[in-house]
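Anyone? Bumping this.
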Amino acid sequence: MTVRTRFAPSPTGLLHIGNARAALFNFLYARHHGGKFLLRIEDTDRERSTQQAVDVLFDGLAWMGLTPDEQPVFQSTRQARHAEVAHHLLAQGLAYRCYCTPQELQQMREQAMAEGRPPRYNGYWRDRDPSEAPPGAPYTVRIRAPREGEATIPDLVQGEVRVANAEMDDMIILRADGTPVYQLAVVVDDHDMDITHVIRGDDHLTNSFRQAMIYRAMGWDLPAFAHLPLIHGPDGAKLSKRHGAQSVVEFREMGYLPEALNNYLLRLGWGHGDAEILSRDEQIQLFDLDGVGRSASRMDYAKLLHLNGVWLRQADDARLADDVAERLAGRPDVTLDDTVRARIQTLMPGLKDRAKTLVDLADSAAFLGRHVPLSFDAKAEKLLTPEARTMLGLLARDLAVIEPFDAPTIDAALRRFAEHHGHKLGQVAQPLRAAVTGSTTSPGIDATLAALGRDEVMARIGSVAQ
Ligand code: GLU
């Protein structure tokens, strides 16, 4: 059997991290077993499913590196096929027409509740002859649900899950306007797409029992199910806005790397010994459903931030420099030409060592694209005393002539200068850093000057020196 998994989001204009994790698990499971990962856009709610909402999904998945192996299937294009299955069940007597009006259904629910019963459909038309209905009356199609016994679903995460059939009613599969309901569409699509494993959030567990009813009626094999426990906020409550970012786009904007978010989401609710930092290849090699825990996981933003720092330090400098340039583009105080881009890349090893996010990284690189006269933050201003400005003037003479203008030569020159004038290295380096960066933090001063290049360093020192 070739494993075929699918991610089946409804386009709501948001790729929630819970969904992104389901996509990741489907992807990894398929890859681990040499199978295929598919995407189905559940866009039957035509009002919400705008092109923009679909694009948000595609962008988010592409950013996470979770592109499907086949063309995405759009559920809305398959309604005729869904209806065909409903009519087949009708023809077989496995489903029936229900002529109850909305008012009658409402009364039925109210009566059930008044009698202390759950508000389910009571099977009024289950065994009635359709000729009893008023001619031309609209009808829905309901599946003939088993009434006795219990339904079991072997779940690869939750174990065997059972529900008494008496707890399920004859659900509608085709609405009065002839459109299929969601439960029918999912089953028909999963069957037609040859899906072998349905891996999704455990908020779909009750749906699975309803869907299993359709599989059984059609005589189709059930796929294997794996229901993933949900992601909660740090306080154990349902993840919501007040806990912080929840959508993949928000994390991207906040400067997270996709590797870090993937790694974090994988580790959230799945474990393999102590393995913490896992590359995509390692994830594929190690992932299986038996490592998925049964209880809800709690989002730990601090841990994600830590992982992001780890992944930033491992990331390629040119790639980070491109991302930083993109984040700096459009800032009024920053010019982004090839020279500035080259400076950013040159200083990247030092910059990324200190950053936790790409936003920090862009902030700390911004000085590389500024012009004289720089603006100085309060701490930098304080360091630029008249004495310091005089000292910088002297230092500039040395820096003007050293060859080559690279980090080791700059370092040696600064040490020589400090020694010659009876200063500690920091007494020279700190005002110098203030003068060339406008702040008191930057990577090593030698690497910082080397990245700026001699001309720029001379201009920046010149604008403050006396
Ligand atoms: N479209 C459903 C959702 O976004 C998922 C359905 C499924 O995975 O079966 O929640």
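Late reply, but here is one note on the structure posted above: The pocket of glutamic acid is lined by residues 8-10, 42, 186, 200, 204 (CB under 6 Å).
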